[in-house]
Design goal:
The complex is a heterotrimer of chains A (484), B (380) and C (363). With 484 residues, chain A is an alpha+beta fold. Chain A has helices at residues 2-14, 20-27, 57-74, 98-106, 154-164, 196-207, 217-224, 241-249, 270-273, 278-281, 284-313, 321-331, 338-358, 361-382, 387-401, 406-444, and strands at 34-41, 44-51, 92-95, 109-115, 119-125, 170-177, 183-190, 236-238, 253-257, 263-266, 446-447, 450-451. Helix content of chain A is 48%, strand content 14%. The chains are: A alpha+beta (484), B alpha/beta (380), C mainly alpha (363). Chains in contact: A-B, A-C, B-C.
Chain lengths: 484, 380, 363
């Protein structure tokens, strides 16, 4: 990056003496994919510039070069200004600012420099970026919902949102973020639903990002988040268009990043992170039960190892006698204290999980399953860990898989160690203290000025019906908003 | 400053952390305790330790030895004995899973139960649900009787009274909590007795503990326990067996199964004198009948049985009232409780010498038996 | 529930969380020693009534000085110097009560959960959590209390349901005893278990609690809820432990929870459940007083919320709570604190009320 800045400065000194074409060529350091074609139409000299791999060359041929050559045969007098309307393209913009030329080129536009008495620069959209077909988001599988997921192209993503939300109140605002290299960011909201303060806040936060280059939504998320010392996600990450449209209808805002299949929804609450779109597609009784299960599993996923440790090495009296006896039998001969044992197993399972993600998919799942079984089995039979510990740790891991949001499950995984540490020192009392500290943190968290623990703390009675449980919608009534 | 403080606290935690951490397998779980007099020194205490390794878990594998280990030690006080324990086992004794406490007859004859129990009540490790028993046998022997159903003798002892709803002779467990509330309320009470019978543990009667000094006052046999259960309204089921004695000819043996039972105690003051009326209401069903001639489809077939059963129950109640008032002069029947509730003024004035008052209180027993039926079929 | 009540809900939660604390564990024994009657729960209701009367006194002070906390009212009414003295008394009271509660909690934690862990650690760890929570401000404190409020209620409910089985009804009888005198004397003891409602004076700068109606609603709902819980636990305590036993048990409610045992159930023992919930109530109480002390100190010294003051208060509480030698001494400290509470519950509001009404009539 630094070298680049240096070179740009060098150009500045010599830019007056060169023609536009040369200046562009210099700016791109004569990169091989920058194509340049010059030809003469009567009176004016036309230069066409485009980056070959991100433009549709057939379009350029058909819609730009061919008509221009045709114009040359017509023998009609043309000036550089009169080129507008002569080409059969949807839009043809006159570029007045030299700096914009580069941007246009990089967006896949074709630049036409018409040089007569004056020099006029046009930009015509001919982009043809590499595109992936929309397919099901890997991170957020759904049972009965729509299967389409966001892709890397921001245009396609916008089209997906428009497809799911036919509303003229849906507004997109485009920002170019990045001090060195611009990345397009789109702020989406439904006018009338989202509060003005929220929109202003979002605008300000996006505009104040001071990064050189934002490659992905994940970076943007960290750049616009304010809770730097929190493990919890401040914005919801999703690749699922319906989740975005639901959020938009609830009055939230969404930020799309060009080149990233992930949309960011704000404000985010903990409650929101534990919901899945599927919850709304089923009837409310099973949906509520699944919700309760999700909450329960989420709590277990960070509390269970700590509770187990504190019971087994601090409060033996609180375990039922039969269980205590069998636990002490299974732990007989284990060389480590249970805390170390738990840390070891946790570490193993985290490593397996990471390995599963990094490896190619078909091998990955095999490795993690085989690894888990083999390591668990042999560790137990070798007497290094107790079978109960293996059970507790693997159950915890499975519980953490039920958390719908990956960011949140990462956060819970980190907190598990925090709790484990406290439990190792002070037992159940330590767990309580850790929970106090954790909940203080959560309660004081704000995501775009909305309390993170809403609707539990502060309690919002109206919203509670869509939290741990999901009551039926009162459709048809005035307050029958689906997602409130 | 904040940083320093946080740092200090963290150091504090790290450096000397885990004060109470004690792995479960390093703890000697004690599930039964027996107290007795020692041979040389004052007390002997038998601890029943769990030996987890010897518990048979999976199929097949034969355990190496007994799943429990009894350690009997002698000493001047219980605390000393527990300390001495640590000389012999590498595991610190842990009483949080204590199930039963067995006291020997000799011990409670000499020592007050209040003193014996106070140590156990003071320490938080002991739960209030520990069952207490008394035995005439040697405590060490009874703790090492091979259990039949459970893995540990101490658990077996505690579970013996599970069937108190099936038999009239089984008292409910006397728990620590009851013991301590009886002692703090200054009333006499009973503790179930266990004995070894053909190398098995079984319940027999009960020991009476006096409210004067909380020492052993006497024993109740199994028949008297029946009466006590009727009086204290703890009958949940069981049998009323009318043997030939009542009917004077041996074929007429009738066994009645108790369906419901309820006892009400009404203390009454008549011209300054206390009078207690006990009324028992019970519903029974014909369980076993050795009289072939009886025709249950005839009106009034149950008249005789009803009368006999009433007499039987009345007699068994009187069997326990009689020694309570005359022999021991102790109110372990729980009458004082009812007098306190129903006649608080009288109780307040006679609280101090309640046993004196109790001894002369006329107790009238009224039993009502309702024969409910004879089961599903009656073979003629 | 209408919107107005809803806006007061956080305050109700705040007050209930403040009141419930040590009282639920020790009050039954104290009351049993004073009253010695199975129907001593009547005293609890009487105690609540006295608390409500005291609440009315506090209200009339707030009513005359709307939208101000007690720390603003004092200097406004009696002048800066005397007002500061009042404030310091109130701050001292809050600190002492927090220290007392912390020590009590440390005793119980040491007794039932952690035998060997030094008391200093037990106390300072909780104080650290407390410093953190208080430093995030009153909005977050209230949110925190709301988060744990359902958990506390659920714990009490569960414990009640589980213990009902163990109640021996005869222990509760006779219900009607003619002797009313001990019940009235006992109300003095039970009254102190309702202490905590006075912290409404710290929250009184809110608009929503300036009216008589909303203030008395807040007080009625919070005192009523606490009173119900106390009466319930009194009945459970007497029914399970019996009166005589109650007198000699140090922490009767925990012993009561210890008597619950379900054979073959996954959790055989429920005192853990109770202790878990109870430490939460202790924490909420301490946080509330801690906040009151911090706010008072900040207002008196005229500095904005300061992390150094925050830590200073924490250290004072730690030192004070380590100070008593044993549990018997601790209980005797309780009586000294009672004098402080007389001063800050009745004395200060009364003087403020008197002076502000004199001023008004002079005008």
């Amino acid at each position: 990056m630094k070298i680049r800045r240096h070179s740009i400065k060098q150009q500045d000194s010599s830019k007056e003496s060169k023609s536009i074409k040369e200046r562009i060529m210099d700016d791109f350091h004569h990169s091989s994919d920058l194509h340049c074609k010059s030809f003469e139409v009567p009176d004016i000299e036309i230069t066409i510039l485009f980056i070959a791999d991100i433009t549709n060359r057939k379009t350029i041929q058909k819609l730009i070069i061919a008509p221009l050559l045709f114009l040359a045969q017509e023998n009609e007098p043309i000036t550089p200004f009169s080129l507008t309307g002569k080409l059969p393209v949807e839009s043809m913009e006159v570029v007045k600012n030299y700096d914009k030329i580069n941007t246009y080129l990089m967006d896949g536009f074709t630049i036409i420099i018409a040089k007569g008495e004056t020099e006029v620069v046009y930009a015509i959209e001919t982009c043809n970026f590499v595109k992936r077909k929309t397919n099901e988001p890997v991170n957020e599988p759904t049972i009965s919902g729509p299967r389409d997921g966001f892709v890397e192209s921001i245009q396609d993503n916008k089209s997906l949102i428009r497809m799911h939300l036919h509303s003229n109140d849906l507004v997109f605002e485009r920002f170019a973020v990045g001090t060195e290299v611009k990345t397009y960011v789109e702020l989406a909201y439904v006018k009338g639903k989202a509060s003005e303060e929220l929109i202003t806040e979002a605008r300000e936060r996006i505009q104040s990002v001071k990064a050189e280059y934002l490659g992905d939504a994940g970076l943007l998320e960290q750049a616009i988040g304010k809770n730097k010392f929190s493990a919890f996600p401040e914005l919801t990450n999703t690749q699922f268009p319906l989740k975005v449209t639901n959020a938009l209808m609830e009055g939230k805002i969404t930020i799309l990043t060009d080149g990233s299949p992930t949309a960011l929804i704000a404000p985010t609450t903990l409650n929101m992170l534990l919901q899945t779109p599927d919850d709304y597609y089923f009837k409310w009784i099973p949906a509520s039960l699944t919700r309760i299960l999700t909450y329960f599993a989420a709590i277990i996923s960070f509390v269970l190892p700590a509770v187990y440790i504190s019971l087994i090495s601090f409060h033996h009296g609180l375990i039922p006698t039969d269980l205590a006896i069998s636990l002490s039998k299974t732990r007989e001969g284990v060389p480590f204290p249970s805390v170390i044992e738990a840390f070891l197993m946790e570490l193993t399972i985290e490593i397996l999980r990471e390995a599963g993600i990094r490896l190619p998919k078909p091998i990955g799942s095999t490795v993690s399953i085989v690894g888990a079984i083999v390591i668990g089995e042999t560790a137990v039979s070798a007497g290094i860990v107790s079978p109960m510990m293996v059970m507790v740790i693997s159950f915890t891991a499975i519980c953490s898989f039920t958390v719908p949001n990956y960011q949140l499950s990462l956060a819970l995984r980190s907190i598990r160690f925090f709790l484990l540490f406290f439990a190792a020192i002070l037992g159940i009392y330590g767990i309580l203290i850790a929970l106090f500290i954790l909940s203080t943190h959560l309660v004081s968290l704000r995501s775009f000025n909305v309390p993170y623990m809403e609707p539990f703390a502060p309690i919002r009675f109206r919203q509670l019906k869509d939290s741990v449980i999901r009551l039926f919608f009162r459709l048809g009534k005035k307050d029958g908003k689906l997602h409130e | 400053m904040i940083r320093k403080m946080v740092f200090t606290i963290c150091c504090l935690l790290f450096l000397s952390a885990c004060w109470d951490s004690n792995e479960i397998e390093d703890v000697g779980l004690i599930i039964g305790v027996g107290l007795d007099f020692g041979e040389d020194e004052k007390f002997s205490m038998t601890h029943q330790y769990v030996v987890p390794n010897n518990i048979q878990r999976s199929q097949g594998s034969q355990a190496a030895g007994k799943p429990f280990q009894n350690l009997t030690l002698e000493g001047e006080s219980f605390f000393e004995i527990i300390r001495e324990n640590s000389l012999e086992t590498d595991r610190p004794p842990n009483f949080t899973h204590l199930k039963s406490l067995v006291l020997s007859e000799k011990l409670i004859e000499e020592e007050s139960v209040r003193k014996l129990i106070s140590f156990f009540l003071r320490d938080h490790e002991f739960r209030r649900t520990v069952a207490v028993f008394v035995t005439k046998e040697k405590v060490e022997d009874i703790m090492s009787v091979e259990p039949t159903k459970e893995i540990f003798p101490a658990v077996q002892i505690k579970e013996l009274t599970q069937n108190n709803d099936k038999s009239l002779e089984i008292l409910e467990n006397t728990k620590f909590s009851e013991l301590s509330s009886n002692i703090s309320e200054d009333v006499s009470f009973v503790i179930p007795e266990i004995e070894i019978n053909q190398n098995r543990i079984r319940l027999s009667g009960a020991a009476i503990i006096s409210d004067q000094d909380f020492k052993l006052a006497g024993w109740l046999n199994r028949e008297q326990v029946q009466g006590l259960k009727w009086l204290t309204n703890t009958v949940k089921g069981g049998l009323v067996s009318l043997t030939g004695q009542e009917e004077k000819h041996s074929e007429d043996h009738v066994v009645l199964e108790i369906i419901t039972a309820g006892t009400e105690i009404h203390p009454k003051i008549e011209s300054g004198k206390l009078k207690v009326e006990v009324s028992v209401n019970t519903t029974v069903r014909l369980g076993e009948d050795w009289n072939i001639e009886r025709d249950v489809f005839k009106q009034g077939w149950d008249e005789k049985i009803t009368k006999d059963a009433e007499n039987h129950i009345k007699k068994s109640i009187q069997q326990v009232i009689e020694p309570a008032q005359n022999e021991y002069e102790l109110d372990f029947l729980g009458l004082s409780k009812w007098v306190r509730i129903k006649e608080p003024a009288f109780y307040e004035s006679h609280k101090k010498n309640w046993n004196e008052t109790f001894k002369d209180v006329p107790i009238s027993v009224d039993v009502k038996v309702d024969v409910d039926g004879y089961g599903t079929q009656d073979l003629q | 529930m209408n919107d107005k009540q809803l806006s007061n809900f956080p305050i109700i939660v705040f007050i209930i969380s403040t009141i419930i604390g040590v009282g639920i564990v020790t009050l039954p024994r104290e009351a049993a020693n004073v009253i010695d009657q199975p129907n001593m729960w009547v005293s609890v209701v009487l105690g609540a009534a006295i608390a409500f009367l005291n609440g009315l006194l506090i209200f009339s002070v707030i009513k005359r000085n709307p939208e101000q906390t007690i720390y603003d009212i004092g200097p406004n009414v009696v002048g800066r110097l005397l007002g500061s003295v009042f404030n310091i008394i109130f701050v001292l009271y809050a600190i002492c009560i927090s220290a007392f509660i912390m020590r009590m909690m440390a005793e119980i934690v040491n007794y039932y959960l952690l035998d060997l862990t030094p008391r200093l650690v037990v106390i300072s760890v909780l104080i650290v959590a407390c410093v953190y929570l208080v430093s995030t401000g009153i909005t977050n404190i209230m949110a925190f209390l709301q988060l744990y409020f359902p958990i506390i209620l659920l714990m009490f409910l569960l414990l009640t349901i589980l213990s009902v089985r163990n109640i021996e009804v005869t222990n509760l009888r006779p219900v009607f005893v003619n002797d009313i005198v001990p019940l009235i004397i006992g109300a003095k003891t039970t009254f102190f278990s309702f202490v905590g409602y006075e912290l409404i004076m710290v929250l009184s700068n809110r608009k929503s609690i300036s009216g008589w109606k909303s203030m008395s609603t807040i007080m009625l709902i919070s005192l009523g809820t606490v009173c119900t819980i106390y009466v319930l636990f009194f009945i459970l305590n007497i029914g399970i432990l019996s009166l005589e036993e109650l007198k000699v048990t140090t922490f009767p409610t925990i012993e009561m929870a210890k008597s619950i045992e379900f054979q073959g159930f996954f959790f055989e023992r429920f005192e853990l459940l109770f202790l878990f919930g109870w430490i939460i109530t202790i924490f909420t109480t301490v946080v509330a007083y801690y906040y009151a002390a911090l706010l008072g100190l900040c207002k008196t010294l005229r500095c904005n919320k300061n992390i150094y003051l925050n830590i200073l208060i924490g250290s004072i509480i730690i030192v004070l709570s380590i100070f008593p030698d044993g549990i018997t001494e601790l209980f005797s400290y309780g009586t000294y604190i009672n004098y402080l509470s007389y001063a800050s519950l009745i004395g200060i509001p009364f003087i403020l009320l008197l002076i502000s009404s004199i001023r008004r009539s002079l005008r």
